[in-house]
Amino acid sequence: MDATVAIDLTPEQLQAGLIDGTLNKVALDNLLTVNVHENDNIDGLVQFFLQYIPGNRTMDEFLQQIREYNNAQICGLVWNANVMAYRCKTCSISPCMSICAQCFQNGNHEGHNYNMFKSQAGGACDCGDSSVMHEFGFCRFHGENRPHPQAVPHELICCAELLIPHLLKVFIRALRMSAVSGDIVTEQKLLEILNQLSNSGSALQTCITNSLTDRKLYDEFISDPSINRLYHIEFLNGEYSNLPTTYFVETLMADSASDALIPFDTSLQTMLDEIMMWCVTTHLPEDLVRFLLSLLPDFSFKLSFTETFLRFYGVIAQLLVEESHLDTSEIPSRLVHISVQLFSSNIIADYVMDKCHLIEVILSCIWRMFVPSTDQDKQDDDDDDESILKTHPLAITNEDTPGAMVIDVEHQLIVKNVYWPLLSDFVNILSQEKVVLTILENKKYFNLWLRFLTLFQGMNVNERIIGHHIEYEPQAYMYAFTIELEISAAAMWCFINHLKADYPEEKFIAIIKQILMSINDWLESLNFQTDNADHWKLTFHLPLHRYLAMFAYNAIHKFNIDPASFLPTDNPTMLMNLMFHPLRTIAGYFEVLSNIWLRNGQQVTIQAKTYAKSAFSASMHDADFFLLQLIACYLEPNLFIETVLKKFHSWLFDSTERSSLDPNHQIAMLESALITLCALVGFQPNNAGRDNQQIRTEIIGILSVADRLYSEVEENVPDPSPLSANRKEIETILNEVSDFQTPSVELLGHLHQGKYVIKGVLFETDYDPLHVIMRSTKRAHFQNSLERFTKYVKHENLFKSDYPIWPPFRMPKYSHAYTSKVQRILQSSVLHHFLFLCLNAYSKDKTVTENILYFTIYLLELSLISADKTSPTVVETNTEEIGAFKSNNIFQNLCTLFSIGNESESMITLLLKILHKQRSNDFLELINTISARLKAANHNNSSRIGDSYYFLSNILYLAAQMNVQCHVAIEQEIEKLKGQYQQQQQQQQPTTTKTSDLTAEQKRQRAKNRQQKLLAEIAQSQKKFITQQNPDDQSMHLGTPPSLGSDPFSMDQAMATATTASNTPIASEYSVEYECCVCRLTKSDSQSPIGLIGTTCLSLLPSLEFAQLDEYEQQRLSIPSNKITLETYLHLTKQCLIQISEHPYIANHCQNDHYLRSLRIQSCGHSIHADCLSSYLKALHPNQGAAETILNAILPATVNFRCPLCRQSANTLILLFDHTDYSITHNHQQIASPVERLHQSMVNPSRPKLTRVADERCLLAFLSGLAAKCISFDQLSPDRPLLLPNHQSTKQRAAEFDCGTLRAQLVHEQMFYESANKIDQKTIRKSFYKILHELHHLGYPFYHQQLWQEVTGLLCPITIADVFDPQQTLPPILLRDPLTILFQLLMSTPIHITSDEFDVIVQIVFNIEFFKNLLSILIEQPVAESKDFDFDVDVNSVIKCVEQSRLKEQITYQRTIDDPIGKQLMNKCLDFLKTSSLIKYRLYSKEMPWTTGEEPSPLGLASYLNLNLSLNGLAMPRWFCSEPRAVLSKWLEDFQLTVQRYTTAAKILCLGRPQFHPPVFVDIPSKYGDLFHMYSEYHCEHCNRTSSDTLLCLICGEIYIKRWFASCCSQQRQRYNQHLVKCALPSAVMLDVQTTLTVICLPTLYGYWHSLYLDQHGEEDPKLKRGKTLYLDLKRLAILRTLWLTATFDYQVQNWLSYNSLPIGHMDGLP
Asked: Could you tell me the fold of the domain covering 78-137?
């Protein structure tokens, strides 16, 4: 039945009765129960609740009013995955803290360490929750200090209070039915109502939560037999009985009375419990999860919900395992979405730990996931192959003992990260100090965790492959490292960070002993013995050892606990067992870097580098190293050293090791052994986490290798703790040790981000090469740091030497007395023997590198320094070939002699012989110096900067100073060597040093010298090429001398410039012999046409130029806006000309605006023959037809290729001709006057003829190809019939195209000059206007003889070569475009006119420009008499013409300008002067008085063009005929007649041209966060879906979506393609809102450029990985605009992608 019919009360009556108490509530409840719960019509029920809950108002009105009473302390806004939120480490208490964008913006986080991030699993806003974040981070609307509204009026909420419990009951029924039937429609409809109520604020949330947690209400609901049938109680019972059972781990519940397994309690006691059950069984549907989470701001409900969630936690964990076989599952992310909101609060964690077995629940679920219970084991006996545990590869098994088990990292539970939600929750609760202390102090908890870690101990074992290369490289290593970092290490750092200094010492020792016991148990399970261990098995995963290392480190440094209190110092065997696996891992790490494991593939190399990577090193590599250092403090030194050397396969000790390794591996492992021994004594592992001194050392090491971005520094400084809050100390230390290098721009616009450069003085004081090499997985990194150190030393003259500078190894500094005991290993006879062998090997074996020598010397130095000075010395001679030292005394061992062949050697003799080997040329001088200094009283040298001689001699000085017997032995050996050396010199003849006799270092130095010489030659060749390709490079880059560019242009300068006219024709100005980049032949060496490799692209940029209109101009043009584009303006004037001329072609002849939508033609500067290009294209595209069309259409519009030399993209061949390629029939150079020469060329017109047919064909193909590229985009007007002589409409279009193309090149260059700054001049490429000018001149079809006569007054016979018939009526000269006339005249004159002839043509056209602008001023302003003018021309005639035309009377509004008329005239002529000057500059390479970014002086440009200048500095008309007044009268007469006939059109044409500016980008916010929130989403009006993948066009300001949805793909594709037509010519510039990068979109391609937004460190944040505050970089914005205006993106974007390859998500290919 229908609910609205069943209840006789209206909503108004229901509300009134509840307010005044006239209704019996019990009876009313019964009535609602019967009429609501017995109703089967769900839609009717939904309508009922929407109608009756608001009472006497609509639902929207009700919700709006109820929100005004929201008194929630916590925001609690819930969001799903992929939503941007904020996390402030300064404000956070819990590491999982997050806040919504609105709360972030309403709070004050200035100066905080915060970031914006994309939520991976969803979340909720914690603003206002003092248990998760500090109160100073709250926004003004949340927390204790929030505004407190009044209490909710009873009359407003009474109906909702009554009906919400019934709504929840209906919702539960819908859940029961939908869970069985699978129909979730009804559930969603009811859930939508509940979400609306919950989102309206705290008042209704309280009503909902009270009903959900009311046990009595639920008991009545499920115990009423009358409605159980209607509510399908049988569905509930059936589903409940099928719930899986999860048991607690037995050891965790040891207090229970029986040994039986204890299950989790999943009983249903409230409506919340049942909703949670359905939520779990339906796999945590997103909408239902969001609804429950939206209620969490109610704290009492949050407690109840957490309790319920934990009771069903085991069921969720089992569902995770069950779904692990599926490809994808949403349960993990939704589980974390819930748990992170609950366990981040310390109050909640404390409550559920005491009341709900929080620790037991989570640990049991984790353990059961990896180790099923006994009952489950019985059920899974048949599935042994699917077990996650396997027999440990390191175990020695036998029949009696099955051996240890280890996790199979290739199991699907690991591969699919099924464990991640549970372990994430465990680490989350470990952020609470009370939880950590409870686990550590309760053995049953911590022992279970250690048992769990034992399952990962030694996982992913690698076995070395010999003889063949691995066929398949497994990827399991990725999962193994992820497990150790996210499970073991994360928990370890939580444990350690919560142990404060007041923690009881005995408890700390007990924890370490528990770890030791677990390691021993693991070793026993392996049946481990050092003798039978496989030395070619390698694992990087030893979590138990790392727990021991880190707890021991903190015990020593934080609690000052003696390691002897927890280490088995009296049991060497146990210590040896403890160090075996960490030592094997470190040795294996160096084996991999030495390429010994090469046949195992790349995956082992990646493991080794990951092991030492900054994110892992503190928890893995450094922990292992510290454990070795700690054990070295207590193990007998000789035993320790011998063990280490054996693990490093020291072939010097054991000849069998030499046979098992090839020579390269032997040397590499020898060096690795020395590095490890040095590091054991001198390297400080980063185990402290947040120690400032350690961080400083790390930063200096990072910066010593290379200049770094801030993010690179931050990423490479280990920060293992998940509880780390603010890493502000990095920034502080970075500012102390480095200088910031601001973002910069290089040649051609290449951008560099801000970097930090190490302060040079730190190389002298703090640079630690040992630390650098321990952090470097590539030897090149260490070498880079050493080269930078050497460069600094030489620059500061700190050490003068022609030999390589050695690394300045530092003297060790120890952070604690207990760890300083590691120096014991230096007093080891085994070590001394090893060092002796290393010295001997270097002196005898040329393959032993100098690196081995300086590590050996460093260890010798440390041994001497740490030795007892009073130790007696007895010099011994060992008659064995090479025996072992019998003493641990370094002084005695220095002098001990061994019999090697026919010689007796000691370390002293070897040191001197090595010195002789390196410095044989001046050896005698060196040993004399050493001998002299030995006799000095004190020869200490504390400097760590020197070469090999410096450090070798220091060893001798140090030994002699510390021990008398050493002093005597050294002097004796020196005297002995002196005699031998002098005798050898007398016997030997001078010989040339052979290459084979050179040391490795000398060979490297020679190679380096050769490399530098080669680079110098290449640089010289490049410089020569640039000089050839840019003859005007200096003038282009500088623009003008400083006197013309910076100071106002004086009259003296103008007159001086006017006298510098040249009679040199264009052809002889500069001639370049172009060379083909393929065959290397020049133009003169081949018959094939040659051309420049060029790029042509359509450009609409000129049409986007804009002008700001004043009120007068708006009225004259009838434009409602104060902004007008050039395209709109020229369209208006063109329409006026069409009205006057009555035909578009005549209008086009008078005003050629094809340059608005023309081709931008550029070149990389390299040339190629047409035949070579054809062959090149055939090689690229085997389709021969495409290559054969080159000579017919150079090139087709569809042909794209890359320059063979510089690899820049190209699509055309710009032909190159010179005066030798064509013949000139008439030569008028013998005529003295430039005007006469020009006039004769117009009277007897002739155009040069190309001498070769192939050249003629190529020229036609080139010009036709350019026109075809325009026509293909409908850029030319359609052909319409016109009665012209010889039907010349086609030629007319060609002529317009020629002039329009040339003008387009100049307009683009003019835009650059007007918009760029001086630095940006480097970004513009060489102009090829001169070449294009000649090509279009050769193909131009007309001679404008009638125009010449009309503008000069010189009689000229009209031939058929002219455009129009003499009887054709044309618009008056003063209404035409002067620049159009200028190009027409230039195309009519001879191809090679001199610069003074060019000046004459400009002066002739300037006359028109002058009087046209004078008419405009007279019409616009109230000027009546000639005395008002400050120049001498026939002004009266012009004034009279204006008066007779009566045009001024038609204009109702006039404006007054205070500037003199002459200045106004010059300003109006400025655009003409700019274009004319650019033409002259490009044709004749005369320095132009115009610098980019500065407005040129009209007087300077007029002088540059040699115009007629008056005494007061104004450019004036100059006539070249006998009757100039007659010419002007004819102009004015034609103007007057046209104005009288076409007054409306004339009013617009007579308006002075507004000042147009180059196009600009739309305004964008200065902070990226503001832009993100404005444009991060786009709602599609076609499918009503919202996309976050948005693109903002910086040209038009519109938003487009990057990834098209299937339902609206066609609509959005069409919209995007329309946008490309509008903005992508030449390129659309768009900002990818989600990534911050700039997208450059061409009509067929797209690519990514840099980001316009940088953080405070001058660094980009692509894809918002760091989420730092980003600020708009105005320099980058200016560079981007310059690249856009010059169409040079092709030289900046390296990777262009095609739209066709990615039809849907076409912007996903980020760099």
From this structure: Cysteine Rich Protein (2.10.110)
d(CA 583, CA 77): 51
Backbone Cα Rg of the chain: 44
Residues 6 or more apart whose CB falls under 8 angstroms from that of 107 comprise: 99, 127, 137, 138, 139, 140
Closest to 1030 (Cα-Cα) out of 606, 1330, 1276, 1465: 1330
Looking at the chain, the whole-number percentage of residues with pLDDT higher than 90 is: 40
Structure tokens at 1410: 């002058």
Q: Quick one: pLDDT band at residue 1027, thresholds 50, 70, 90?
A: low
Residue 1387 exposure: Cα atoms within 13 Å on the Cβ side: 32
Residue 1012 has pLDDT above 50, yes or no: yes
**Dist CA 1450 CA 1540 (whole Å):** 11
Q: Tell me: the pLDDT tens digits for 42-98?
A: 788 888 889 889 988 899 999 999 999 988 899 989 988 778 889 888 888 888 889
Which tokens sit at 865? 């320094």
Neighbours of 658 (CB within 10 A): 16
1306 φ, ψ to 5°?
-70, -35
Structure tokens at 979: 């005699």
Alpha helices of 1552-1631 — where are they, by DSSP H? 1568-1575, 1609-1623
Secondary structure element (H or E) that encloses residue 733, with its range: helix 728-737
Is residue 1206 within 8 Å of residue 1164, measured between CB atoms? Answer: yes
- Are 732 and 695 spatial neighbours (Cβ–Cβ below 8 Å)? no
| CA geometry: angle 1116, 1119, 1123, nearest 5 deg | 110
CA 1527 to chain centre: 66
How far is Cα 339 from Cα 310, in angstroms, rounded to an integer? 9
Average pLDDT score over the chain:
83
Cα gap 600→477, rounded to integer Å: 13
Instruction: For CA atoms 415, 420, 421, 422, give the dihedral sign.
Output: positive
- Integer Cα distance of 1707 and 1111 in angstroms: 44
* Chain center to CA of 312: 43
**420 vs 1497: CA distance, rounded Å:** 71
Residues 6+ positions from 1350 with CB-CB distance below 8 Å: 1373, 1530
Q: Please, where are the H alpha helices in 1121-1214?
A: 1126-1141, 1144-1150, 1170-1180, 1184-1188
Decide if pLDDT at 338 tops 60. yes
Q: What is the bridge-based pairing of β-strands 877-878 and 897-900?
A: parallel
Helix axes 1378-1388, 1289-1315, angle to 10 degrees: 120
Q: Is 1063 helix (H, G, I), strand (E, B) or coil?
A: coil
Strand, coil or helix: what is 1093? strand
The encoded tokens of residue 1555 equal 């000042």
CB contact at 8 A, 898 and 836: yes
β-strands 1123-1125, 1106-1108: how paired? antiparallel
Domain layout of the chain by residue ranges: 78-137, 827-985, 1001-1030, 1091-1388, 1405-1548, 1568-1698
Q: Is-contact 1410 1465, C-beta < 8 A?
A: yes
Write the pLDDT tens digit of every residue in 317-335: 999 988 888 878 888 888 9
Average pLDDT on 202-226 reads 90
Beta strands in 845-1003 (DSSP E): 877-878, 897-900, 903-905
